[in-house]
Amino acid sequence: MSQVLGKPLLRKEDPVLLSGRGRYADDLPVPNGTVHAHIIRSPHAHATILRIDASAALAEAGVWAVVTGEDVRRISDPFLIALKPQINQWSLAVERVRYFGEPVALVVADTRYLAEDAAELVQIDYEPLPAVVDLEAARSPSAPLLHPEARTNEISVRRFSYGDPKGAFEGADARVALTLDYPRNSFTPIECYVVVAEYRPHEKSYDVLANFQGPFSTHAVMARALRVPGTKLRLRIPPDSGGSFGIKLSIFPYIVLAALAARITGRPVKWVEDRAEHLAAASSGPNRITEIEAAVRKDGRILALRLDQIEDYGAFLRAPMPGPLYRMHGAVTGAYDIANVEVTNRVVLTNKMPASLIRGFGGPQLYMALERLVQRIAIELHLDPLEVIKRNVIAREKFPYKAAAGALYDSGDYLRAVELAVGNGRLEDLKRRRDVARAAGRPYGIGFAAIVEPGMSNMGYLSTLLTAEARDKPGPKNGAISMATLNIDPLGAVSLTADVTVQGQGHATVLSQIVAEQLGLKVGDITVILELDTLKDEWSIAAGTYSCRFSPGAAVAAHLAAVRMRDKLAEIAAKQLNILPDDVEFADGMIGSRNNPDNALPFGRVAGTAHWSPVMLPEGMPPGLRETAVWSPPGLEPPSSEDRVNTSLTYGFVFDMCGVEIDPLTFEARVDRYVSMHDAGRLLNPLIAMGQMRGSFAQGIAAALYEEFVYDENGAFLSGTFADYLVPTVGEIPPVEILHMETPSPFTPLGAKGIAEGNCMSVPACIANAIADALGVKDVRLPATPRRLHALMAAAEPKRPPPTSRGGR
Amino acid sequence: MKPRKFAYIRPDTVDEAVAVLGEYGDDARILAGGQSLMAMLNLRLVEAAALIDIARIPELDTIRVAGDKVEIGAAVVQNRLLAWPDLKSRLPLLGALLPFVGHFQTRNRGTVCGSIAHADPSSEIPLSLAMLGGEVVLRSLRGTRVLAASDFQRGVLTTAREPDELVAAVRFPVAPSRHRVAFREVARRHGDFAIIAVAAMVEDAGAVRLGVGGMTGAPAIRRIEMNGGTAARDAIETLAWDLEGFEDIHASARLRRDILRRIGPVVIEEACRCAA
User: Fold this and answer.
1) Within this chain, do residues B77 and B38 fall inside the same structural domain, yes or no?
2) Whole-structure pTM over 0.90, yes or no?
3) CA A266, CA A255: separation in Å to the nearest integer?
4) For A804, nearest residue in chain B (alpha carbons)
5) Which terminus of chain A is more solvent-facing, meaning fewer CB atoms within 10 Å of its CB: N or C?
6) How close does chain B come to A273, measured CA to CA in Å?
7) Domain count along chain B
């Protein structure tokens, strides 16, 4: 049936990108007279700003302005956040700095070189304050306060209870508990932030080009900060992107900063973030401490869970934070059928860079706790960990499955996925490899992880942060709107726009497949334009590319627009062909009768009718060919009065299994074999899906073994270059065997779920489990570096030999 | 990450380069491959009134066999040496360790002499020069000076080079016979700064020369007698404590010592096996 949809077509984007013809933000032409900005950043983790003297810098030729926090406070408002008390943050530090790398002043000059030279002449006096870096220490009543007006660093605590956790714990055969400490890391796109901002004084409006990724709910935050209506902040997103991985949401304070600088200088202002700035201050996933406990039956069946999740958002809470703590909320029980759950969520501030969304946000932290706990249950009850997983996963016949905290899982067959993955001798092979290694004295362990991968967030999930009463005041928040617009010109050329931002995923290819499928055209016939202009294009608060919203969201909107267009063309053609619309077939660029192939018209001819010959259209049909479809799936309801929330529309499944060996000479963890089983519903383009899974796997490996933002106890940042923040390269990424099955989602017309985040969520937990198994330890900190593994493995050091004559030098 | 203003000077001959260097002295930096220098300039960690670019001086772009030594000019990039057909027979240690120097892309620009002049303690090429007992040829308006490797590198990023001197070439003694070396490096990722680098070379039937990079300011070289029993292990244990090891976010000093204890004997054994 399917002509092009579901086929592993090559990405149509690639020839452009691979031949160096990409149009990235920094490459695009800028308005005449554009000046360049450089940001002076805090060298302290916590300090009072006593004085900023920019006179020497301003005296330099070519320097336009030195913008400070006081300027920004005067002409803009603090960014809105989801919580009260308001934690005030402007686009530059006001009165105090709260993390290393925080923007303190902006130097604007004719060139970036001049701006950086002038920055050295700006005198800033600080009075250092005690910093608090450790998450637990920050909760102590005696800890230095990040925001004295909040009177605490633990700015939100919410407790949730579903089912009867208390009863389940009391009646359980055993309890198994574990404390996890998930590290801070990020994913570093090749392209950093870019903003070009103009101010139009006559309209009092801002016109900004930025590689912002959404969600566009943040557009309102920026407009409010700039004190303008949304229409006065025209935001344009460039056609190509050097990657994002969630990071490019957090460009929004810089968009406001550049806009203000444009207003102050009267010139268009361009700012390009450099790599040192990016590592120190762009964005990070939050680190999280989880205390998790299960009530279990002797056979390993989990009766109840209790989680205390303490998450570190750094120095400020930025919109839409604390997303990672709540995005998984409805699905907090993961892949398991657990009716009773108690969750405590705590939001804590420390003197670190603000944390925000990164690929898979909230998932790695949750599954590190849940999947490590499942292994502990097996160990403490003397069971096979795989058996514990199998005994607890949701049974096929229970779908659609309502999870305890409110998620409505659309489809799945988890047990079959597990059986397929361990089958074909794969698990036997892993055990054989383990036995050989152990016999030779090399530590080797096997790990598993079973996770649920949410796709397309319910825009109301974050309001679970507030109590039901507090939610009632502003009214319910929910849903997840997607939009796409299909155009056909008088010659029959087809173009599509959609409310996604390009980040390199190959969306143009998949959208072309969706449209071509309906219209009987070739993928190459469809032009997809994904650069976005907030004044002219379709968008809503949910717009953007994040949380796997493409396949369940934007793709569906494109499908609906294409179906509607097809129906219209069918009616037009039916009249001309003298047949019924039901008899119309679209194939090979022709529109004709299914029953009589000779009775057909070229696609372009039919399309032209709608433009040139309204007189020939069926009675009452509006002329022109432009269809905007809005997809707003039912089922994404606001959080209930009992705090149950269906956090996402679709829920895929990933089951991972791996063998990890620890080199006894060098203490390096080496992934010996990795198997990853996916069910993401229907695959729209298996080749692109494979690319997403491999990328996600690589970043899972990065989090498990390499990447970490490291601060010392005073808040000094120790991982400020790529020599210290270790992004694994192709040489460090082990092979992965990816397996598939498809249980289409019944909740979307295309049946496709999200796929790009699952391995980011599963790999850290799976590898941690393997390492725990290899070393027989309970506490495994990630990334599992040689330094950490050595600390776990090393016996007492031999005594220093007495000094002797040192011959042979 | 933009450098401060500097003058860019590209002399055509060594004499010219040395003359300019004599004029600027400490205020100038020699630019060859720029793989460390440019990053440091961009981060404004080093100051330079002038960069003297020697990369295109033809007389420096030579690999020459002179007697029992191989002389490598200051413009020779690491990949060129790696591709030199006689490398494995004449300088097997360099053949073994050059693939660990940075990445293919950085080796296309980074020079052999630049690595020596930069004197990073974890760097492989200075380790090989020290292991082989090579020499550094320094040119200035005052003439030519030849220093032994052990006299040249003094510590972390510090050498005996005077401000007006150009590292014009390095000389590696040719290996007396083939296959008598072994090399291992432990780094977090391929191409990273070594946490520890260990080289071994069979000197004669009874002894091995062991070189360790990454643990102290300059490569450490020891002669280890192989008179059976635990002599080698004892010598490595002593060496581990002598060197102590750096402490950084990637490895504790203790971890460095423990890796040395474990891979030291392995590398020695590999070298002996090659020699057999």
Assistant:
1) no
2) yes
3) 16
4) B238
5) N
6) 9
7) 3
